[in-house]
Recover the amino acids of this structure.
């Protein structure tokens, strides 16, 4: 189930964003406190209000506890394109939950948001994410060598996309 992320989710967001395994390929600083999680939730809300992004909490049916997130964190309105991002607590990996969430999100993007294409920027070592994208007809469009600097080292990026007409 996908639902709106609210301030009451700050403990789960902090736990997710400070989990080494969950953050392994995100290439962003880990949350240091629940205050960081609250700041992220507030940013998600601002982006939603401004129509610059939409991010949902992922929950199991009959349980409102947040187990992950998925959404379009960067919407480029003038290009009818958005960048998708997602993460799950490691104990929920490999159960098909993100597959369900990404299918619903893609449908929402093309039908409700009227997007033309969806982009995913992936750490090339994140084979599970690449497999998920390819299973959903995303195609690798680019590979940038050492284009992103994080934690004292340069990291490669793989860019995948899905065009509405490809579905």
């Amino acid at each position: 189930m996908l639902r709106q992320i609210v301030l009451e989710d700050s403990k789960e967001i902090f736990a997710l964003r400070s989990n080494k395994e969950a953050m392994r390929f995100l290439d962003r600083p880990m949350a240091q406190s629940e205050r960081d999680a609250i700041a992220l939730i507030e940013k998600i809300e601002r982006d939603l209000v401004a129509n610059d992004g939409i991010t949902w909490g992922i929950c199991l049916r009959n349980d409102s506890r947040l187990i992950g997130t998925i959404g379009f964190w960067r919407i480029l309105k003038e290009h009818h394109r958005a960048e998708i991002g997602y993460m799950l607590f490691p104990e929920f990996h490999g159960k098909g939950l993100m597959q369900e969430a990404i299918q619903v999100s893609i449908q929402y993007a093309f039908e409700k948001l009227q997007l033309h294409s969806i982009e995913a920027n992936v750490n090339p070592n994140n084979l599970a994410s690449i497999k998920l994208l390819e299973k959903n007809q995303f195609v690798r469009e680019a590979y940038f060598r050492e284009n992103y600097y994080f934690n004292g080292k340069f990291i490669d990026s793989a860019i995948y996309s899905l065009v509405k007409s490809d579905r």
